[in-house]
């Protein structure tokens, strides 16, 4: 295959070994939700929850049910997020992992419900919460029902914060639209993968609105780190160790294992 960033050829064996990262330029290609779960969680510790929650067609959008069915057959998942809990190097965590293969990770009512329930599970189990964000934004096929999920997930996270629990948001390529404008940017700690696209409106829309030329690296992880919107950029190969250390630091029983 050819890298979309540096245009160099990548052998499939190398691509698998580097966990979907270009060995030449370090570009982080998107991962499926289950690839990421297997990469981050200790073997045989992850328990999926709410796997049967799926989208309906609240506004009768033409052929929406057919599109959902086709996406399920193509990706092997029923919605654009997989949720559950398990251990990361022995540290407990509840997680929601978005999957850009499923309708570009767009947030409809089912995605919002699953993420809200993951937040509630984190409160119930008194475990830290991690959300891996990857989304093209709100799902237009559900209109206002999709936009409602922004407030719904944000309200759940306020309850989570009031309980004094840790929430780590991990921004991957791409994280845009209503997801960026809600739960993605509400983390106590915000981590990003290198060179990820992170923003609300697209750069072309912003340039037309403000009538100014934007920097070349605008809406990249590196740009957001410089401006203080992101706490740390973490390579994929280091993600499990970084998350486990953060979890251990916030878990008085785990600090001795750091």
UniProtKB/TrEMBL annotation:
<feature type="binding site">
    <location>
        <position position="6"/>
    </location>
    <ligand>
        <name>Zn(2+)</name>
    </ligand>
</feature>
<dbReference type="InterPro" id="IPR011762">
    <property type="entry name" value="COA_CT_N"/>
</dbReference>
<dbReference type="InterPro" id="IPR034733">
    <property type="entry name" value="AcCoA_carboxyl_beta"/>
</dbReference>
<keyword id="KW-0444">Lipid biosynthesis</keyword>
<dbReference type="GO" id="GO:0016740">
    <property type="term" value="F:transferase activity"/>
</dbReference>
<keyword id="KW-0276">Fatty acid metabolism</keyword>
<comment type="function">
    <text>Component of the acetyl coenzyme A carboxylase (ACC) complex. Biotin carboxylase (BC) catalyzes the carboxylation of biotin on its carrier protein (BCCP) and then the CO(2) group is transferred by the transcarboxylase to acetyl-CoA to form malonyl-CoA.</text>
</comment>
<feature type="binding site">
    <location>
        <position position="25"/>
    </location>
    <ligand>
        <name>Zn(2+)</name>
    </ligand>
</feature>
<keyword id="KW-0067">ATP-binding</keyword>
<dbReference type="Pfam" id="PF17848">
    <property type="entry name" value="Zn_ribbon_ACC"/>
</dbReference>
<keyword id="KW-0863">Zinc-finger</keyword>
<dbReference type="Pfam" id="PF01039">
    <property type="entry name" value="Carboxyl_trans"/>
</dbReference>
<dbReference type="GO" id="GO:0003989">
    <property type="term" value="F:acetyl-CoA carboxylase activity"/>
</dbReference>
<keyword id="KW-0275">Fatty acid biosynthesis</keyword>
<keyword id="KW-0436">Ligase</keyword>
<feature type="domain" description="CoA carboxyltransferase N-terminal">
    <location>
        <begin position="1"/>
        <end position="258"/>
    </location>
</feature>
<comment type="similarity">
    <text>Belongs to the AccD/PCCB family.</text>
</comment>
<keyword id="KW-0443">Lipid metabolism</keyword>
<dbReference type="InterPro" id="IPR029045">
    <property type="entry name" value="ClpP/crotonase-like_dom_sf"/>
</dbReference>
<keyword id="KW-0547">Nucleotide-binding</keyword>
<keyword id="KW-0479">Metal-binding</keyword>
<feature type="zinc finger region" description="C4-type">
    <location>
        <begin position="3"/>
        <end position="25"/>
    </location>
</feature>
<dbReference type="InterPro" id="IPR041010">
    <property type="entry name" value="Znf-ACC"/>
</dbReference>
<keyword id="KW-0808">Transferase</keyword>
<keyword id="KW-0862">Zinc</keyword>
<keyword id="KW-0963">Cytoplasm</keyword>
<feature type="binding site">
    <location>
        <position position="22"/>
    </location>
    <ligand>
        <name>Zn(2+)</name>
    </ligand>
</feature>
<comment type="subunit">
    <text>Acetyl-CoA carboxylase is a heterohexamer composed of biotin carboxyl carrier protein (AccB), biotin carboxylase (AccC) and two subunits each of ACCase subunit alpha (AccA) and ACCase subunit beta (AccD).</text>
</comment>
<protein>
    <recommendedName>
        <fullName>Acetyl-coenzyme A carboxylase carboxyl transferase subunit beta</fullName>
        <ecNumber>2.1.3.15</ecNumber>
    </recommendedName>
</protein>
<feature type="binding site">
    <location>
        <position position="3"/>
    </location>
    <ligand>
        <name>Zn(2+)</name>
    </ligand>
</feature>
<dbReference type="InterPro" id="IPR000438">
    <property type="entry name" value="Acetyl_CoA_COase_Trfase_b_su"/>
</dbReference>
<comment type="pathway">
    <text>Lipid metabolism; malonyl-CoA biosynthesis; malonyl-CoA from acetyl-CoA: step 1/1.</text>
</comment>
